[in-house]
Design brief:
The protein is of the alpha/beta class. It folds into two domains: about 30-125 and about 250-320, 3-Layer(aba) Sandwich (D-Maltodextrin-Binding Protein, domain 2); about 130-235, 3-Layer(aba) Sandwich (D-Maltodextrin-Binding Protein, domain 2), CATH 3.40.190. The protein is about 45% helix and about 20% strand. The strands form two sheets. The chain has a six-stranded mixed beta sheet. A five-stranded mixed beta sheet has the order 7-6-8-5-9, sandwiched between helices. Helix 2 (about 45-55) packs antiparallel against helix 10 (about 280-290).
Amino acid sequence: MNRRILLTTALAMGAALLAPAAQAEWKPTRPIELVVHSGPGGGNDVMGRALVAAIDEAKLSPVRIQVSNKVGGGGATAASYLADKKGDPHVIGIFTSVWITNPLVQQEANVSIRELTPISLMVLEPALMVVRADSPYKTMTELMDAAKANPGKMKQSGGSPLARDALVRTVLQAKTGGRWAFISFPSGGERISALLGGHVDMMVIEPQEAGELIRSGKIRALAQVTESRLPDFKDIPTLKEAGFDVPNPPQPRGVIGPPGMAPDVLAYYVDLIQRANKSPGWQKFLRDGILEEKLLGPKETLEFLTQTETQMRGILTESGVKLVR
């Protein structure tokens, strides 16, 4: 009888201890700040707003999610802002490859992406090398030959000097011996306007930023920065097919949190992103943007980021870029 009483008491105590844990599942109690490092119209901003729209449309969040543009330092400002929010459960951000490359080459960009809390990788973005429709260059070979024949005279519009578009320039210059300037603009709209206005000669662009411009004939695509051709641009060769066997710097985009994120808070955001990924609004965004779905959990995302950092180190070193870390 005593054993039975003791066993019953122990089970009851165990249930009592477990009950608060089950009831303590975290949920946001005030608006969530979603930090992006680009200005309006940039790829980071476009993805952040698309994610918020998909969550809102599917009614997945009990609170409002507000996009917060922290522009500056090629992503360093946004990363530092997030790092300063240690333990804050109501702040998350959208990361891209520039969050990986910046700390490698800029002393002042002192926040490693691995110091933050990976939540989920969501997409991998393809890209295209484009010129204006009235450009004299019809192929990548013609464009690269002109850049080699006229060192420093041609220009490329882009975002951060360490973003994927700039890294494509770096590997192409190393491969071809050509030299051209890189003009950095804070927003995607400004980069496109510079190309259309004749202020620059070329641009590496994500399809969702200028798909309609390409389809309408205002911009000519010369090559795809992908391993294989995109179905929507099946007549455009990859860089390798065009005769330029260079690494394709990846452009991952995903969700990351500040340091010290509590396990139940992390679990909430992982679940939110997984549900958002299945939503009709997000799936439409993937289709319209010609994006590769790449949904990974926190552990797998950290592994991916670590591997990407190693790859970026190799690309930068081979291209003669000095690393500070």
